[in-house]
Design a protein that fits this description.
Helices cover about 45% and strands about 20% of the residues. The chain has about 160 residues and is of the alpha/beta class. It has one domain: Glutaredoxin. It has a 6-stranded mixed β-sheet. The longest helix is centred in the first third of the chain and has 16 residues. The relative contact order is 0.20. Keywords: Redox-active center.
């Protein structure tokens, strides 16, 4: 009984007591992560100060959660300022109860990193990349998606290759 209580307490503290980890990376590391993925990815470029970004994230989370059996991964790549990494980001993520794989892009030159994600990306956010290396599916949006657009896009993401 004591062991069960201890394990429950440890799990509770792990879930509620510690903010999600936000890993710092460069654009080449992010591209490598995407290129080596063996499962579908939804990669959202966002910032804490971007209201449309913050509004969109719960829709992305809900969509990805519906297809968790398909191993769809939501990656939230923050473009926040240096001063927000890591404490400000972790605090914001915890406050908003976001759930994803979190990265902070340690780049400041959008002319350098944007074309590595998509050649037409001007740097506007929110921006979302849906990519499935196994099927060759790739679609990029440089705008906020609506709650009604997310699920159909995920269905295309996980559809078998034609």
């Amino acid at each position: 009984m004591k062991r069960s209580v201890f394990l429950f307490l440890l799990l509770f503290l792990t879930i509620t007591g510690f903010p999600q980890s936000v890993k710092k990376l460069k654009i080449d590391q992010l591209i490598s992560y995407i290129d080596s993925s063996d499962h579908p990815l939804v990669v959202s470029f966002w910032a804490t100060w971007c209201a449309p970004c913050v509004e969109e994230i719960p829709w992305l989370q809900t969509g990805v959660e519906k297809y968790k059996n398909e191993k769809v991964e939501l990656m939230l790549v923050s473009l926040d300022f240096d001063s927000e990494y890591p404490a400000g980001l972790q605090s914001f993520i915890k406050k908003k109860n976001f759930s994803a794989t979190f990265f902070w892009l340690d780049e400041s030159n959008a002319d350098y990193f944007c074309p590595k994600v998509d050649e037409k990306w001007s740097g506007g956010i929110p921006a979302t990349l849906f990519i499935n290396k196994a099927t060759g599916y790739r679609k990029f949006f440089e705008r906020q998606l609506t709650d009604r657009q997310v699920e159909p896009e995920i269905k295309l993401l996980i559809a078998p290759a034609k």
